[in-house]
Each structure stands twice: as structure tokens, then as C-alpha cells.
Design goal:
Elements: H1 11-33, H2 40-63, H3 70-80, E1 82-91, H4 94-105, H5 110-120, E2 123-125, E3 132-133, H6 139-145, E4 157-159, E5 162-173, H7 179-207, E6 208-210, H8 212-216, H9 227-230, E7 236-240, E8 246-247, H10 248-258, H11 263-268, H12 272-293
Antiparallel strand pairs: 1-2, 1-3, 1-5, 4-5, 6-7, 7-8
Helix pairs in contact: 2-12, 3-7, 4-5, 7-12, 10-12
């Protein structure tokens, strides 16, 4: 999704792309003359190129015309030209975060108060003391500290399931003439990623159906029946309308390949089952995208 699929290339890039296409065509013709298409390696590579071309063409239509909001571009560009030094604390309970804000408002030292409250509850003080670009901070942190004057403390804000408070220690400008262009590119990449994820979800709904009862029985880490047995299991796990199903065997093999250190070692670390959902989602996405591209 960071490859800029769907963005209109500059004229020079279009010429380079045409040159590459011509080069690929000539190489393909030469390969056929040498009967290289009969080797497994080349056939696999040609298949990958064909699939990628179909996929990219499908996404291009969906991503065409995407353009970042100018106000968001301006905001991110500004964030890229400012560095801040902050102190932050995060707590499991909102009440502890509120205590820190109240004590800081009374004039208590932020670090001392944060350490004391954290010691009595579940919290921690971020040890980081260096400068960091605003654009590298999480959006919630940016929002919290952007309006602060030096030395001031933010209101409580959420970071995941924790409640955080930050104090702005220092702020300094960092000139960057390319900030606006980089901000526009970054925002476009984000938009493309979000649009592709949305499109993939639509295609899954359209084509895929998971056999939840079968999936619930899969335990890749159990001693019995053992991981190796799943590599031979031909039960259909996900049916894809108009295409081959994803079987238990296909999922098990994909999980094995994803974990490069081997299935046995991974099982000891409880990684096989934790990877199942992620790998299955990847497999389904690839299948439904190709199904739509070939429709």
C-alpha cells in the first residue's frame, strides 16, 4: 500500500514504465524461444507477475482520484517542522491519571508526582528525555500537547487501554523545505491503505465464507493430533465463490512458512495459534482479490 498504486506518475516515470514493459516483453519472447517457460521456477515467477499485474490493475481503479485534505497536509507539514521534548505517564486507571493532573496543577513536580502515583497503582513514567518530531508522535499525543505552553501539563487522554498525561518540556523549530511534499505523500499512502482495507473487507463479504465450526477445532500447538497432521488435512476451511477453497492444509502450510524457525520451536513459544488469524486473513484477502480481478 506504500507503493503509490493508483497515483498518476510523472511523465518521466511513465516513460520509464513503458521501457520496463518493453524490456519484459522482449525478455519473455526470448525466454519462450529458449523454452524457459517449461521450468518450474520461471513458471512460478510468471504466475507471480501475472497475479501482481491483475491485483494492481484492480486496485488502481479503486484508488484513482484519492487526494489528501489540504488542511491535513498543512497540519502534518507543520508537525514535521517542530520537535518537542515531553514527559509522559500512563496509568491503568483514569483516577490515577486525574490525580497527576490535579497535583501538577497545584505545583507539584510532574516526575515526582507521577512516580509516586505509579508506585501506589498500576502506571509508569516514560523515561524518554530526548527531542522527537511532532509528526512521529501518536495522533492522540500530538493533539494533547499541541496547544500547551512550555511547562504546562495536558488533560488526560487515551493511549490504547491506558490513561496518559504529558508535560511539554521544550519545543523548537526544525526547518524542512520538503515537509509539505512528504506530508502529502504520507497522507496519500494512508488513504490508499485505508481504501484497500475497506475494499478487501467488501470482497471478503462478497466471496468468502469461513467454516467457523471447523476453524474452532484447530489447535496447532496441541500434542494430539499434532501440527504435522494438519499439513495433510484437506477439509475446506474457507469457501471462495467461484474459486478453490482454502483448506486446513493450506492454512497450516502458510503458518509454517510464516514462522521461519520451524513449527516445533514456534509451538513451544505459543506462536502457531497466535499466527492463525493473521495468516488466514492474508490468505482470504489474496484469494478474494484475485477472484474479483478475474471476474
Amino acid at each position: 500500500v506504500r507503493s503509490g498504486i493508483g497515483a498518476a506518475p510523472p511523465a518521466g516515470e511513465a516513460v520509464k514504465a513503458l521501457d520496463r514493459m518493453i524490456g519484459v516483453e522482449l525478455a519473455t519472447q526470448e525466454g519462450y524461444r529458449m523454452r524457459l517457460e517449461e521450468t518450474l521456477e520461471v513458471r512460478d515467477q510468471i504466475g507471480i507477475i501475472e497475479r501482481d499485474t491483475l491485483r494492481d490493475g484492480l486496485f488502481a481503479g479503486r484508488l484513482q482520484g484519492l487526494k489528501p485534505d489540504p488542511n491535513q497536509v498543512e497540519s502534518m507539514a507543520k508537525a514535521m517542522t517542530v520537535e518537542v521534548r515531553i514527559r509522559s505517564a500512563a496509568f491503568a486507571a483514569r483516577a490515577d491519571a486525574d490525580k497527576l493532573v490535579a497535583r501538577a496543577a497545584r505545583g507539584d513536580d510532574f516526575d515526582d508526582a507521577a512516580k509516586e502515583i505509579a508506585a501506589n497503582g498500576k502506571g509508569n513514567l516514560d523515561p524518554g528525555e530526548g527531542f522527537i518530531r511532532m509528526s512521529d508522535l501518536l495522533p492522540a499525543v500530538q493533539t494533547a500537547i499541541r496547544p500547551l505552553a512550555l511547562g504546562r501539563v495536558s488533560a488526560v487522554y487515551k493511549i490504547g487501554d491506558r490513561f496518559a498525561v504529558s508535560r511539554l518540556v521544550e519545543r523548537r523549530p526544525v526547518p524542512d523545505p520538503d515537509a509539505r511534499a512528504r506530508a502529502e505523500e504520507e497522507l496519500l499512502h494512508r488513504m490508499q491503505g485505508e481504501e484497500i482495507a475497506k475494499y478487501a473487507a467488501e470482497l471478503k463479504q462478497k466471496y468468502a465464507k469461513i467454516d467457523e465450526s471447523t476453524y474452532a477445532t484447530l489447535d496447532f500447538e496441541a500434542e494430539k493430533p499434532g501440527f504435522e497432521s494438519y499439513l495433510k488435512d484437506s477439509r475446506a476451511l474457507v469457501t471462495i465463490a467461484g474459486a478453490e477453497p482454502i483448506t486446513v492444509r493450506v492454512l497450516a502450510d502458510a503458518v509454517r512458512k510464516r514462522l521461519f524457525h520451524g513449527a516445533g520451536r514456534a509451538a513451544e513459544k505459543n506462536r502457531l495459534n497466535s499466527k492463525k488469524d493473521e495468516v488466514l486473513e492474508d490468505l482470504i484477502t489474496k484469494r478474494v482479490v484475485m477472484r474479483e480481478a478475474l471476474a
